[in-house]
Structure to design on (189 residues):
């Protein structure tokens, strides 16, 4: 994989902060992959490109989503999450990504889904706890949970709990899938 050209594309197509976030997510994903026994290089790549569609205009994102198959109506609830499924065709076109595990992790790094694989959980969590743009007070409880038995699920649960609280505090709609995943995680902790 030619990381130099990928980073060049990201630097040209993302804001500086989003670019730094992508680098941090890639590094964090590789660290978590090593800890949890999944492919470190694939995790790095997925983390690096997970936000490849983040800086597209809302109209562009909607155009991409309307052309995709299997987009659920819940994925249209919050425009801030459009970039995740839209990242699939961008990653395919710009970086020739065909690996389904990487593409799935990109798609589900914002909303998540029921029964996520460890790889998908790692990219989801790395996106939330990378140290380059995330605050220490937010990151620390999640990192602590990762040290415990069943750490991936405990960390994921904290992420969902924080998201739900934040959405409630801001009077924003909550995707029904978010509640389902929260309840699923609660039952396995």
């Amino acid at each position: 994989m030619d990381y130099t050209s990928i980073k060049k594309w990201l630097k040209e197509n993302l804001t500086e902060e989003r670019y730094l976030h992508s680098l941090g997510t890639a590094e964090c994903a590789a660290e978590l992959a090593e800890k949890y026994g999944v492919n470190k290089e694939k995790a790095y790549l997925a983390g690096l490109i997970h936000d490849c569609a983040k800086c597209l205009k809302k109209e562009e994102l909607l155009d991409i989503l309307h052309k995709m198959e299997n987009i659920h109506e819940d994925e249209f609830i919050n425009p801030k999450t459009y970039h995740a499924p839209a990242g699939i065709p961008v990653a395919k076109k710009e970086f020739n990504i065909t690996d389904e595990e990487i593409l799935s992790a990109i798609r589900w790094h914002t909303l998540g889904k029921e029964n996520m694989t460890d790889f998908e959980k790692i990219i989801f969590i790395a996106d939330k706890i990378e140290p380059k743009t995330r605050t220490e007070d937010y990151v620390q409880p999640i990192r602590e949970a990762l040290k415990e038995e069943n750490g991936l699920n405990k960390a994921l649960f904290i992420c969902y709990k924080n998201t739900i609280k934040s959405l409630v505090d801001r009077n924003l709609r909550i995707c029904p899938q978010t509640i389902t995943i929260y309840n699923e995680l609660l039952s396995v902790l």
